[in-house]
Every structure is written in C-alpha cells, then in structure tokens.
Write a structure and sequence with these properties.
Elements lengths: L4 H17 L5 H8 L3 H10 L6 E6 L8 E7 L5 H15 L6
Antiparallel strand pairs: 1-2
C-alpha cells in the first residue's frame, strides 16, 4: 500500500499520539519502537498541536530537565477509540514494526 506524504504525516502523528497514550511516552522509546530518526520523532511530537492534540512533556521531579515523559492532556477532535481500533493499520501503512 502506497500512501501520500500528507497521509504519512497524518498517520505518523496519530500513531505517535497512540504510542504516548500506551506509555511509549519518551523520545528514546518512540525512536526505539518506530525506528524513526530522532528529529522526525521530535518534529512529530511538536506537530501534534496542529491536530489540536494537547501533548505535553512533563519532567520527572528531581531529575535533569530533559528526563520525563509526554502526556496527552486532550485529544481534541481525534477519537482515541477509533485510534485504538486502527493503530495496527497505521503502523503497517507507515512500515513500522508491530508494537509488542
């Protein structure tokens, strides 16, 4: 299945939000699970706001400022139930390994 650049960008954002909601909630974990480059993962996390998904980084108290996790505060117009049902399809379309 070949997808357009627009589709891949949209699917990637949805899939990263899905991962964050499943406790794959820090940059190294997202990179490990998807195999995407660090900069792509960072840009994708930052771009979630363009879908009105409120995703925030929460530092771990007592740790260096870059240690912590991302949290979805509000899904905006995205239905997380739909995403749960279609995450495997998005993963496959993006060419990412299946989530264990």
């Amino acid at each position: 299945m070949t997808i357009s650049k627009t589709q891949s960008s949209f699917y990637r954002r949805l899939y990263v939000a899905y991962l964050v909601a499943r406790d794959v909630d820090n940059l190294p974990a997202i990179i490990d699970v998807t195999g995407m480059p660090r900069r792509t993962a960072q840009d994708t996390l930052a771009a979630l706001s363009e879908l009105d998904i409120d995703c925030r980084f929460e530092p771990t108290p007592g740790k260096p400022h870059n240690i912590g996790q991302y949290v979805i505060r509000d899904w905006g117009p995205i239905d997380p139930d739909w995403l749960n049902q279609h995450a495997e399809r998005l993963c496959k379309a993006l060419g990412y390994p299946p989530l264990a």
